[in-house]
Amino acid sequence: MKPLPGTKNARIGPASKNKLAAARLFYATGFVLVLYAVAALLAWNLGRGFWSPLALFVKNEAPPPATFTLVASGDVMLGRRVADAMEKKGRFYPFQQVALLLQAGDLTFGNLESPLSRQGTPLPGKGIWFRGDPNGAGALKMAGYDLMSVANNHTLDYDSPAFLETLAVLRKAGIEPVGGGKNNTEALRPVVKEVDGYKIAFLAATEMADIFWSWEYPRMLEAAEKQPGVAALKKEQLENTIRSLEGQVDLIVVSLHWGTEYSDYPTPAQREIAHSLVDAGADLILGHHPHCLQGMEFYKGSLIAYSLGNFVYDRQRRPKCQEGLLLQVRFQGPWLQEALIYPVLIQNEQPRLAAGSEADRILQRTAVLAKELGVSLEVRDKVGIIRSNSSE
After folding, report:
1. How is the chain split into domains, by residue range?
2. Mean pLDDT to the nearest integer, 228-238
3. 65 falls in which pLDDT band (50, 70, 90)?
4. N or C end of the chain: which has fewer CB within 10 A?
């Protein structure tokens, strides 16, 4: 037998042989156990989605929440002279200059202030009636809209038949109507959309739901158990709906058709309602109806845009009614990061992005109105910027 190194010619006795065998078995067993532990740890990491051996030594950190964008416009009216322009210049005419901005949102929302129908008769005594072509629904979808509020004082201008057709053509085009339905259950039901795994609930209501114009036909706009119509702005009802969504959705957006026409300021009652809805859980409030822009406010981390003004509309007597705002709100997960404010000018029934001194004028007025509500608006490259920490 060849002697072990260092033993020269020494011979190994039986006892030494037993010790050597035991040592070899011990080290072999330990090596196997180490290999088994490494393999088990690697398999555990692979099962968690780590495909690099470096994951064994690198601390696992969750990726940041997804970022997504909500775009919102003010009033969209496809009747009267807008309807004439669409017939002469093509149904997409009103959106040609702004479609890229609308399409930039993961979700795009607006207030549709006209029925889209050839049916129905005007509500007696109302005096102002809007009605657009049903093909307008396709133009809205092409422009980028995903949801439209119908909770306002004009979608029932031609009574229930036109209103119900409006809901149908919107859905057929792939646009979810919010704040109206064939009965009160449907009108009050939130519409929930999902973006990157986050669920966003939309609600819409109008404070004009209890209005009627003729004692001979006292048809109010509010939906009832057996009557089509819109959701009424009832604070406690909205609060309860918002609270009921807790734990089911990540964000809640509330559209409100409210306020005083042609006024630059929200009323104290509006601010109280908005704050109460935020307290209940609303993350973003979008206002319209005054036909002109108003200020914006941050309250407990939620953004309140009291009026975005007109967006698609025909010529109005007051110059400020030809100006509006397009809002682009950026979220990271459920947290609002910033709002970009694009100034809009309506010319010849067609909104376009304001430029030069026109943009400066619109943004300066918006900044003044926002400052009165405690919000600082930064202007950069003709775009207003409000960040979530810009309000105390």
Report:
1. 14-56, 67-387
2. 98
3. confident
4. N
Q: Which two tokens stand for residue 372?
A: 């009165």
Contact indicator for 234, 185 with CB cutoff of 8 Å: no
What does pTM read for this prediction?
0.83
Percent of the chain at pLDDT > 70 equals: 83
Q: Is the pLDDT of residue 210 over 90?
A: yes
For the domain made up of 67-387, give the CATH fold.
Purple Acid Phosphatase; chain A, domain 2 (3.60.21)
pLDDT per residue as tens digits for the range 172-189? 999 999 999 999 999 999
Tokens representing residue 340 in the block: 């970009």
pLDDT at position 14, please?
A: 46
The vertex-253 CA angle with 347 and 116, nearest 5°, equals 50
How far the first Cα of the chain sits from its last, in Å, is: 89
**Which amino acid is it at 125?**
G
Q: Distance between CA 17 and CA 226 in Å, rounded?
A: 98
Cα–Cα distance measured from residue 82 to residue 66, given in angstroms and rounded to the nearest whole number: 38
Cα 281–chain centre separation? 15
| Pairwise CA distance, residues 312 & 351, whole Å | 6
Q: In what order do the strands lie in the sheet with 198-206?
A: 191-195, 198-206, 251-257, 284-288, 302-305, 296-299
Q: Say how far apart CA 140 and CA 146 lie, in whole Å.
A: 9
* β-strand partners of 123: none
Q: For position 24, what pLDDT does the model report? A: 59
pLDDT at residue 37 tops 70 = no
Q: DSSP string spanning 155-211?
A: TTTTHHHHHHHHHHHHHHHT-EEESEESSHHHHHPPEEEEETTEEEEEEEEETTTT-
